[in-house]
Amino acid sequence: MTKIPAEIPAPAPAAPPAPPRPAPVEDPLWYEIVWGQFRKRTLAYRSLWGVLALFVLAVYAPLFASNKPFYWSAEGKTEFPWFRTLFDRNFYENGIDIFFNSLLFPGTLFAIPAIVVWVRSAGQPRSARGPARQRAAGLAFGAWLLSFGLLLSFPQQSPKRLYEMEEAWLKQDGTPVTAIYAPVPFSSRDGDMERANKGPSFSDGSMHPLGCDSNGRDVMTRMLFGTRISLTVGIFAVALYCAIGTAIGAVSGFFGGRIDNALMRIVEVVICIPSMFLILTMASFIQDRSIFHIMFIIAMVAWTGPARLVRAEFLRLRELDFVSAARAAGFSRTQIIFSEILPNALGPVLVSATFGVASAILTESTMSFLGLGDITVPSWGQVLRVGRETGAWSLILAPGFAIFLTVSLLNLVGEGARDALDPKLRR
Question: What's the pTM value of the predicted model, to 2 decimals?
Fold first, then answer.
């Protein structure tokens, strides 16, 4: 018999390729949650950009207003006076100007690579993104800090040489001079009595959009450089009194007992005295007041607010389970305070600091308006005081609007930060 071959079974169909595993979803960190909530507050988010615009304006103020030419050429000799005088204490007598000028030139130079790294690492996983951004920010800050220290020893030019340079730049004896000036070619410190109390003018020969004060100084220039003073007072005074208040509140809330009672009695005594009266009294005892004295006086009065906030948070947090676990694990008191409790107690302080910057700017402007500020710096309060004395509307409206705008933006940012930090108000 013929054997019929068995049918060859058809090959099994190939299994479909396994779908790619989805990338693991990283849980957002605390600051990422807060930032996402803050961005949903449209008004607060736009106000933050307004504050950043004011900061950029303060940093780059010499590019917009300066009586030193960027480029000067005459009789075959070329100089760059603007750059040469950028870190000269004979031109910029105040240390705040030197600080902002260091942010203008080397600060911008070192910040550009850090910003590039920050943007390019946006799509990377957190394990790679975090260290790259930290290294870039650390290197940029370290390089700027080193350059700032070197710029403090920048060689100063002799007053005689300065006078000769000024005469050469302003030479009008027929010698052909080629010079490029800033859009507002005036100084915030030097004035011309021939322009005293001059109203706003927009002619090419003497453009003063906001006029001149009683000493012949251009008001537009003083307003630009006054942005530096206001932001510096607000930020550094708040940083100082928040540090003092946080330290006192942490000690009071953690230890309690007699220490808490003693510190709280001091806080109550300071709070009972009207803050403005106390500030004016302290300022009247200082003969030659500088802007740093003003920041110190504000800090000595306003530290009680952060102290009470931090104390309340410490009293609440020290009884929670994670603190008890830290004690059981053998953590020292220092580790428990700074590593466990303090990071969780800083939320209210951050919100208070945002509102405090606006309050400090108002306080400094009030002191300058009353004649108790630093008379050597172009403060908005001083411009407003001159406007009240002379009756010039431009000298009243310009600083008044600047103070109103800055304080309003900071208050809106503070409200947005308060809502973003509150879990009950998250959207």
Answer: 0.83
